[in-house]
Amino acid sequence: MMKFPLFILTSLMSTSVFAATCPSYLDVEVRKLHSEQSVNLCELTQGKPVLLINTASNCGYTSQFKALEALHKEYKDKGLVVIGFPSDDFFQEENDEKDTAKVCYINYGVTFTMLATSPVRGSDVNSVFKYLGDKAGAPKWNFYKYVVSGDGNTVMQFNSKVKPDSTELKQAIESVL
């Protein structure tokens, strides 16, 4: 019988447990905004509740970044993961990612995870927003917010007009924590 060191067995066991807890829609590797680094969304979320937002740099709702950052700071230690998905589906995103990054990181001080620009609706939708669209409906404009339980079974959609600091959104977040 072959013997494995304990750390290998522990690693193998935690990997299989981890794989079993990751919803398939998050089982993707995605490039971070204006970066060569990628993030594995399963590793980032690890079965935690998630707030997913399709964003744009030149939208009337762009100022919501400030309140989204405040939500991130308020709930990150309670387990919430906030992820922004810049998209040009509504023709309000910068053409160059460095400009999108400037809006997020410099203008609004965003520290939550922002991913590379990608489609959030239509035939070339990214896999995360495909899942969200199937469960709750595709975004009809920028800054649609989706609160998703850690197992991915509960998806609550909030339109652009629902402010990140609204009672309605905060209650939804607290219901999945």
From TrEMBL:
Coiled-coil portions: none
Keywords on record: Oxidoreductase, Peroxidase, Signal
Signal peptide: 1-19
Cross-referenced Gene3D superfamilies: Glutaredoxin (3.40.30.10)
Alphabetized InterPro entries for the sequence: Glutathione_peroxidase (IPR000889), GPX_AS (IPR029759), Thioredoxin-like_sf (IPR036249), Thioredoxin_domain (IPR013766)
GO biological process, one term: cellular response to oxidative stress
One Pfam family this sequence matches: GSHPx
Active site: 59
GO MF assignments: peroxidase activity
Domain Thioredoxin residue range list: 1-177
Source domain of life: Bacteria
Family affiliation: Belongs to the glutathione peroxidase family.
PANTHER family, A to Z: GLUTATHIONE PEROXIDASE (PTHR11592)
Name of this protein: Glutathione peroxidase
